[in-house]
Each structure stands twice: as structure tokens, then as C-alpha cells.
């Protein structure tokens, strides 16, 4: 007590001045984090995982993510101050930061490249970011309280459509101008967008409601009826509104109103009458900002019962999850894996966790989202590259806020800010589409997803009818659990597979262009029975190349060592590597002859010829050329599902997981190009493609058939496909890979050396291969070698392959040696302008 009495309380509390520093992740390919000083007044505002604005270099202003906060000033340079704080809560979670660091280390890139790939553009700002007036803000009518600097900005935006951050700084003549931009954003007076992307505008719907006094004041509604009696069309509009909105039962329903187009699109109501009621003040028109992801919430209680066989598979999976973190569900095509997934998602949500459902293709999300919506309603988020930046940012924020508990998406979904992930489902886990090729990070979403699940202590379920050899090996060695589904759902049976020898068909003169007589007859029979057909050709465009009949001239790309593909729809020749295109010539530039012929065939030619041969067929094509628009996938699939088209021609997009109940025939037009490919995975991929596309036929009890056209029907791969014999494929492949040291027995790293000069590229590759051989050993380094396509985008390529045995290799040490060798190579004066690309686990 005496100590307390003798204590001197200061008149004002003393605040200890602690100088804090923040390590930030800049969205740039920098080898290490950069440190900034936190202004004292921001000590409590700067949070790990939140965005801050910093100046980098002389003029660049960027937003970046705070990775760490500490009291250690950098020794190598004087830390600049953070300019402003963008978030009052982290937008990147702690598990995400750990994952991003792992990705940078494992895939040998920088964490800045990872964060640049991870964040939607709408969450990234730079000095080139622009501001515009908010579409809902009217400076003349809205009475916002604005500071003088804010008024200046608003006035400037009324004169100009948009301003860059730099222009705002010049306008205000202030270094610290970001707080005024931030304030205007919070007041919803302005919005930010990137120069390269579309300007953001919230999704707004026009709605109408009955003016309040007609509902609140007694007798007013009856009086309104009397007034409108002489105007029956306007009375019809009012009655239609009241049928939809029972205002006497619930006044609040009137406040919500209905979408105006419900009335204006009604063929029995007059549009002018609706507008007249709005003008008179009977109906009040207002705008409402709505989510870009409206969900059918009412359909959440849709019943779904698993079959006894599916229930058994689900119970086995849950049982294995008690002792293993990862389980592979090996279920044949049409076995009902999706229903098992949905039941497991329900199970995870009931336990309070989050779920990520990964799919390899956007086309698959289009079909499966409809099914998932009916089960999970507004808990479901969708994430893929066809969405705008702002739509992706909305999903990102929706996960942080807890709005979306289930997300279905493609490979980029592994970047999303899950904080309580309990289940990760990777469907069609064998697909190469999970691999990102360019730019860095060159990650595989399957492997990255497994690490994400590990960091969040979540369970992972991988599913496939044709698992990758590596995944099945993990099950055989006991690392993962394995559950098999060997029967199709319900009464559906596996399709009959018939091989057609195209050489024999040609001898018999039974080939009609690229269609055998058997295939054409089978298509005609299905169309007569009003059934549907899928045709698979693994090349897009009209023809792989054209050639002069006289001098054999073939047009080549100016920038790549490839021939140009002919696209008939645009009448152009196009490079599928760099995008270069030119008009189709009328005559040969070499000899002047007019005998230019298309060689080979792609999906466009298949579609074209089929329309000529079967004029009554409704043919549609699904490939990279026809699915560029945002909703093109959904439209093509919807047309096929609804029977508007009865023949779907496509590339690999049509092979993956699509479920059409009326498809009874699948045709594979040129099987040999897939099998005869110089790659150790060629047979595995061929088997996967043939089985997957075959699995689209006969899924709902209707007998299915598959016709495979080949010049070599005796190849062993066809026997395995016909017998659905994955086990034989696995046993053959695993023996070959063990003998010749390929995954899963080694880790592979491909190094690609690129330079504008062919000799420089070759010499650099030789020097690097020598250094790596000295560091890692002769057995581990293959090459250098010139790849089949040796020039892309005016750069000459050389490749070196590294094989690191899994059993006795220190992977981190080996990668450090590789990084050091590349670093030393770039320091040599002879190799200026050299690009070295490292691809870990190439596929």
C-alpha cells in the first residue's frame, strides 16, 4: 500500500516511441523481401497480411503485402517510410504466407512472382492505377462532407474520365496524397481500376416498389385503385406488382421491391404503363448493387441420396482419413464420384470447415456449378480466369468474410485466403492442366494443394478414373489411402469400344475425307435416334499447316520455328505459340502457283466437313478458339445439354468429366498423333485421354459406343483401353520408369536457356551444363539439347534436364547449387540478355 501511495502518477500518460519496420512482399521478381519504416502514427495500423502503399525506386508507387513486423533497421540501405495503409484487416492469411514462401522455394522463383500471380488485379495498386468517379456518386446531388483536397480531386474527375495516382499527386502538389484517395474510396465517391483492365462498375439492377405512403397511410391504396380504374393497362401493372409483393401481409417486402424487368419483360404488361407509374410517383424506381454471384438459395434443401455403392466408398474415405491425410478415389468414368464429393463437402461444412473443390478446366466448372448451387446455395463461390478482376476480388473478400464456405475453381484457386480449410478435393487429379507453364511460379496445383492442405491440417481427396502413375504409386507404397469404385452408377454400363483401321479403310476406298465409313454410319444412326455424339480431335484450327503442291513451300512463323496453322473462319494463318497471324495467301509466295493445299486436319475442319456431309446435323465446336468469350463455355454446354446441338466437336476440353445423359457415341478421329509423341508420359496420357473421352458415352443407362480411328490397331495401348485395364498400364509404366529413372523415382527439373542469338544460347547451355555436372554429378545432368521447337518469340532455346533421385538427395541443397550456377552464368559478360527458365516437376 505504501508503494502505491508513493507512486508518482504523471499528468499525461507517457507513450513509448518504438520504431517499427515492416518486411514487405513487392509484386516484383526480387530475390528477397524489402524493408520499410513504419511511421509512428501507423504503428497500430500496419498488420501482417495487410496491404500498404510504398515508394520503390525514384518514381514507382506500389501496393505490397506486409510479411513481417520487427524493430531491426536494414543495414544495407536507409529504409523509406510506408506511405499509407490500405487495409484495416489482413487480406492474406498466415497459412497463405507460409504457402507462398514454400512455393517460391520449391518452384525456384521469387515470392514477389508468387504474390503477383496470387492476388487479383483489383487488389493490386501501382502508380499506373487510375481512379474514376463511383458510378453511384453524383457530385451535384450527393451531399458528402469533403476536405478541400478531396473537392479538388472530384472536380478534376468531372473534367476528366480518370486520373492516375501520379496525376493526383501533381494536382494536389503533395507527397502524401494517398490518404485523400483512401478517404474518397471509403465515402464511395471514387473507385480504383487498372489501366489494362476494364473499369470497375458494381453490378446494379433497377428495381421498383410501391411508394411508401400508399402502404403506410390507410385508404390510400383503395383510392389509387379508383384513380387507375379508367386506365386498365396501368391497373394491370399495379395488380401484377401486388400479386408478387403482398404488401398487406409484410410491409418489408415492399421495401425490397422487385426487379423492374420482371414487369417490363412481361408480354401481358405495357412497358409505357410501367414507366408512367414511375413518373407519377406511384412506383418508386431505385438501383440496387447486387452480388455478381447470385445463388439459388431456395434450392438448398435439394435431396440427394447416395447409392449403397457410393455410401460404401464415402465410408471408406472417411475411415482412411482417420489415419491418412490424403486419399485417392479411383472411380471409373460414370461411377458417381461427384455425388460422393458433394456428400463429403456437406460433412465438412457441418463440422464448421471450409472446402475447396479443384477442377482442371473452366468448361467443367460451368457444368458442375449448376449442380453445386442447388445443394449449397449462396455458400458457394466460383473462381477462374474467365471472371473479371472485380469478380475474383469479390470471391477473395467473400472467403475472408466467411460468406463463401465452399469454392469451386481451377488451379489459381489454391491462392485463395482460406483460414479454416478442412477438405480439399482435386478432381481429375491426373490432368496436365493443373500445371502452370508461364509465367512464374510454374506450379502444379495438385502438389501445391497438398502442401496447402498440410499447412492448414486439412484432408485431401484426389479423384480420377485414370490416376497419374505418381499418385497411384503413392497409394501402392502406403503413403496415401486408396478407395476404388469399379461399377458405373445405376444401370449404366461401360461403352463398347471398336477400333477402325484407317489404312484398311483407305484401301477399300471407304474413307470420306477424315471419316471412316463406320464412323459416319454410326453418327447418322445416332442422329436418327435423336441421340448425341462427341467427336474428339486433338488439334484446333482448320489444318496444322498448308503446303504448295508445286514447290512444297510451307508458311512458317516469323518468330517461332513452327509452321503456321490455317484457320478458315478468319481466313488466316496463325502461330499457336506466339499468336502471330497473317492473311491466307491466294498464291504461293515462292513459286507463284495457286495450288495451295491444307495438310492434316483440326477441329474447325472436322466441323466444316461434317456440316457438308450431314446437313441436318446441328454441329458445334468447343476448343480454344470458340471459348474465348466469358460465358462461351456455359453457352456451348447449355446448347448441347438442351439438345440444340447434337454433335459436339472438340479438343481435350470434351474429354474431361462432362456429363451428358443423351450421348451414345464418341468418335476419336486420329488416335496415332497422341500415342506417337516423344515423351516418357506418352502412353500414360494416351490411355487417360482415350478412357476419359470414351467415358462420355452411355452414362445414363443408354448403351454407349466408342469408335477409335487408327492406322495401327494392334498397339498394346488399345487393348488396355478396351478392357479398361488401368492396372496393366500402371505395372508396365512403373517398371519402365524405375529402369530408366523417371518420376516417381526421381525429381525432374527442366532448365531452358533463351537468347536472341542462336550461338549464345547454345554456348551458355554448354557452360551451364558443365558447371551443373561438376556440382551435381554426371548421372544427374542430361544435355544440353535443342528442343523439337527450338525458337519461340524470336528466342533460341536449349534445354538441360536434371534428375534428382528421391531416395538420397538433399533437394534444398541441390536447388541451391542450381541457383548459384545460374547466377554465375548470368554474371559472365558473353551472356548478356540471357534468360534462364527453371521448371520444377515439368509435365
UniProtKB/TrEMBL annotation:
| Catalysis: reaction(s) | ATP + H2O = ADP + phosphate + H(+); Couples ATP hydrolysis with the unwinding of duplex DNA by translocating in the 3'-5' direction
List the gene name: priA
> Which species does this protein come from?
Pontibacter silvestris
The reply on keyword Transport is: no
HAMAP family reported in the protein's UniProt record: PriA
Q: How is the cofactor bound?
A: Binds 2 zinc ions per subunit.
Q: Which residues form a coiled coil?
A: none
CDD domains (alphabetical):
DEXHc_priA, SF2_C_priA
Q: What is this protein called?
A: Replication restart protein PriA
Which Gene3D superfamilies does the UniProt entry name for this protein?
Answer: P-loop containing nucleotide triphosphate hydrolases, PriA, 3(prime) DNA-binding domain
Q: Which Pfam families match?
A: DEAD, Helicase_C, PriA_3primeBD, PriA_C, Zn_ribbon_PriA
**Residue intervals passing through the bilayer:** none
The coenzyme or cofactor needed here is: Zn(2+)
Q: Which residues bind Zn(2+) 1?
A: 548, 551, 588, 591
Amino acid at each position: 500500500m505504501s508503494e502505491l501511495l508513493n507512486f508518482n502518477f504523471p499528468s499525461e500518460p507517457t507513450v513509448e516511441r518504438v520504431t517499427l519496420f515492416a518486411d514487405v512482399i513487392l509484386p516484383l521478381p526480387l530475390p528477397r523481401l524489402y524493408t520499410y519504416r513504419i511511421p509512428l502514427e501507423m504503428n497500430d495500423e500496419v498488420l501482417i497480411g495487410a496491404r500498404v502503399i510504398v515508394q520503390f525506386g525514384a518514381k514507382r508507387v506500389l501496393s505490397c503485402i506486409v510479411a513481417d513486423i520487427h524493430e531491426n533497421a536494414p543495414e544495407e540501405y536507409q529504409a523509406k517510410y510506408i506511405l499509407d495503409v490500405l487495409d484495416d484487416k489482413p487480406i492474406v492469411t498466415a497459412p497463405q504466407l507460409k504457402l507462398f514462401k514454400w512455393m517460391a522455394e520449391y518452384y525456384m522463383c521469387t515470392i514477389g512472382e508468387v504474390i503477383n500471380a496470387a492476388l487479383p488485379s483489383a487488389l493490386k495498386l501501382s502508380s499506373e492505377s487510375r481512379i474514376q468517379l463511383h458510378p453511384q456518386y453524383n457530385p451535384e446531388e450527393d451531399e458528402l462532407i469533403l476536405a478541400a483536397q478531396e473537392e479538388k480531386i472530384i472536380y478534376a474527375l468531372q473534367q476528366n474520365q480518370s486520373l492516375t495516382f501520379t496525376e493526383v499527386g501533381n494536382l494536389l502538389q503533395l507527397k502524401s496524397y494517398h490518404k485523400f484517395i483512401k478517404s474518397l474510396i471509403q465515402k464511395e465517391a471514387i473507385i480504383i481500376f487498372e489501366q489494362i483492365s476494364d473499369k470497375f462498375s458494381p453490378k446494379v439492377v433497377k428495381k421498383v416498389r410501391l411508394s411508401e405512403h400508399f402502404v403506410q397511410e390507410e385508404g390510400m391504396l383503395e383510392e389509387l385503385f379508383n384513380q387507375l380504374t379508367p386506365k386498365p393497362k396501368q391497373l394491370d401493372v399495379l395488380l401484377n406488382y401486388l400479386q408478387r409483393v403482398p404488401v398487406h401481409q409484410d410491409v418489408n417486402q415492399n421495401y425490397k421491391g422487385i426487379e423492374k424487368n420482371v414487369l417490363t419483360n412481361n408480354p401481358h404488361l405495357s412497358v409505357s404503363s410501367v414507366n408512367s407509374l414511375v413518373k407519377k410517383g406511384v412506383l418508386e424506381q431505385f438501383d440496387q448493387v447486387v452480388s455478381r454471384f447470385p445463388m439459388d438459395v431456395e434450392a438448398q434443401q435439394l435431396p440427394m441420396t447416395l447409392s449403397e455403392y457410393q455410401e460404401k466408398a464415402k465410408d471408406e474415405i472417411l475411415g482412411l482419413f482417420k489415419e491418412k491425410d490424403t486419399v485417392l478415389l479411383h472411380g471409373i468414368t460414370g461411377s458417381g464420384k461427384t455425388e460422393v464429393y458433394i456428400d463429403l463437402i456437406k460433412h465438412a461444412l457441418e463440422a464448421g470447415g471450409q472446402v475447396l473443390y479443384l477442377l482442371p478446366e473452366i468448361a467443367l466448372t460451368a457444368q458442375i456449378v449448376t449442380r453445386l448451387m442447388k445443394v449449397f446455395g449462396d455458400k458457394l463461390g466460383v473462381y477462374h480466369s474467365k471472371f473479371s478482376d472485380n469478380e475474383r476480388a469479390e470471391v477473395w473478400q467473400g472467403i475472408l468474410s466467411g460468406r463463401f464456405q465452399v469454392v469451386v475453381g481451377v488451379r489459381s484457386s489454391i491462392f485463395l485466403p482460406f483460414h479454416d480449410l478442412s477438405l480439399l478435393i482435386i478432381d481429375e487429379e491426373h490432368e496436365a492442366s493443373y500445371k502452370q507453364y508461364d509465367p512464374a511460379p510454374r506450379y502444379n496445383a495438385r502438389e501445391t494443394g497438398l502442401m496447402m492442405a498440410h499447412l492448414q491440417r486439412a484432408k485431401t481427396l484426389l479423384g480420377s478414373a485414370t490416376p497419374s502413375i505418381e499418385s497411384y504409386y503413392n497409394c501402392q507404397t502406403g503413403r496415401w489411402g486408396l478407395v476404388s469404385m469399379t461399377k458405373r452408377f445405376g444401370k449404366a454400363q461401360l461403352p463398347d469400344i471398336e477400333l477402325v483401321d484407317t489404312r484398311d479403310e483407305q484401301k477399300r476406298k471407304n474413307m470420306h475425307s477424315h471419316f471412316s465409313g463406320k464412323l459416319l454410319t454410326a453418327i447418322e444412326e445416332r442422329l436418327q435416334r435423336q441421340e448425341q455424339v462427341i467427336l474428339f480431335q486433338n488439334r484446333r484450327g482448320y489444318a496444322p499447316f498448308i503446303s504448295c503442291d508445286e514447290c512444297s513451300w510451307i508458311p512458317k512463323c516469323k518468330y517461332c520455328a513452327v509452321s503456321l496453322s490455317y484457320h478458315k473462319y478468319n481466313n488466316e494463318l496463325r502461330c499457336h505459340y506466339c499468336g502471330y497471324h497473317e492473311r491466307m495467301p491466294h498464291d504461293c509466295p515462292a513459286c507463284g502457283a495457286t495450288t495451295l493445299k491444307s495438310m492434316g486436319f483440326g477441329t474447325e475442319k472436322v466441323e466444316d466437313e461434317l456440316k457438308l456431309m450431314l446437313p441436318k446435323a446441328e454441329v458445334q465446336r468447343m476448343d480454344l478458339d470458340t471459348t474465348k468469350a466469358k460465358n462461351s463455355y456455359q453457352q456451348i454446354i447449355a446448347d448441347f445439354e438442351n439438345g440444340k446441338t447434337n454433335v459436339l466437336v472438340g479438343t481435350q476440353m470434351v474429354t474431361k468429366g462432362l456429363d451428358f445423359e443423351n450421348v451414345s457415341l464418341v468418335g476419336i478421329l486420329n488416335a496415332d498423333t497422341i500415342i506417337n509423341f516423344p515423351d516418357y508420359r506418352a502412353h500414360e496420357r494416351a490411355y487417360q485421354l482415350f478412357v476419359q473421352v470414351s467415358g462420355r458415352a452411355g452414362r445414363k443407362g443408354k448403351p454407349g459406343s466408342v469408335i477409335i480411328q487408327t492406322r495401327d490397331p494392334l498397339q498394346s495401348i488399345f487393348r488396355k483401353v478396351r478392357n479398361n485395364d488401368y492396372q496393366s498400364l500402371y505395372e508396365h509404366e512403373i517398371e519402365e520408369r524405375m529402369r530408366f529413372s523417371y518420376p516417381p523415382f526421381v525429381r525432374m527439373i527442366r532448365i531452358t536457356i533463351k537468347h536472341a542469338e542462336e550461338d549464345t544460347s547454345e554456348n551458355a547451355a554448354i557452360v551451364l551444363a558443365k558447371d551443373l555436372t561438376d556440382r551435381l554429378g554426371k548421372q544427374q545432368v542430361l544435355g544440353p539439347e535443342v528442343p523439337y521447337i527450338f525458337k519461340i518469340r524470336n528466342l533460341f532455346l536449349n534445354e538441360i534436364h536434371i534428375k534428382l533421385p528421391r531416395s538420397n538427395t538433399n533437394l534444398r541443397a541441390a536447388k541451391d547449387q542450381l541457383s548459384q550456377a545460374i547466377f554465375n552464368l548470368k554474371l559472365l559478360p558473353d551472356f548478356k540478355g540471357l534468360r534462364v527458365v527453371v521448371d520444377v516437376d515439368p509435365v
